[in-house]
Amino acid sequence: MSFDFAVWKRSARTKTAMLADSYESICAASGHAAVDGFDTAGLQRALQDHYGVTDPDDLPFAVETGEAVGSSWLVVNAPFSGADEVRDVLVELALARGLMVYDPQREVVWGNRRPSE
């Protein structure tokens, strides 16, 4: 069983983050006005560096990246038993890059600040 976290950059084009709609769009692999583009490869490399691995397949969780219509995102499928540890690392790395982390299971979000224009 996996525990999912979604990471994206909140768009300055929208007034609200539209969490559920944005996550639905990510699950459908389509863009959303509230989801902006960001360097998904950079965040994935930061995760690999944190865990001391060079191959993303060696991470203790699965990472899926996506991109569509000016939007990009990263979804982490963590094992349920390690979800809290993965969340802590992911939130720290994402917030340092001005990104949001959404936990759809608990409906919790970190970094939900509208970017300055």
SS-derived structural category: alpha+beta
Q: Secondary-structure element sequence?
A: EHEHEEHEE
The averaged pLDDT comes out at 91
How would you describe the shape? Answer: globular
Largest sheet: 6 strands, antiparallel
From the alpha-carbon coordinates, what is the Rg to the nearest angstrom? 13 Å
- End-to-end CA span: 40 Å
Number of distinct beta strands:
6
What is the count of structural domains?
Answer: 1
Model regions low in confidence, pLDDT < 50 over at least 5 residues: none
Strand content: 25-35%
Helix coverage percent of residues?
Answer: 25-40%
Number of helices: 3
Task: Describe the secondary structure blueprint for this structure.
Layout: E1 2-10, H1 19-27, E2 35-36, H2 40-51, E3 62-68, E4 71-79, H3 83-96, E5 100-103, E6 108-110
Antiparallel strand pairs: 1-2, 1-4, 1-5, 3-4, 5-6
Helix pairs in contact: 2-3
Looking at this protein, list some descriptive labels.
alpha+beta, 6 strands, 29% strand, single chain, 30% helix, 117 residues
Give an account of the 3D structure.
By secondary structure, the chain is of the alpha+beta class. It has one domain. The chain has helices spanning 19-27, 40-51, 83-96; strands spanning 2-10, 35-36, 62-68, 71-79, 100-103, 108-110. Strands 1, 2, 3, 4, 5 and 6 form a 6-stranded antiparallel sheet that branches. Helix 2 crosses helix 3. The longest helix has 14 residues, at 83-96. It is globular and about 35 Å long.
Summary of the model, kept short:
This protein has helices at residues 19-27, 40-51, 83-96; strands at residues 2-10, 35-36, 62-68, 71-79, 100-103, 108-110. The chain is an alpha+beta fold and 117 residues long.
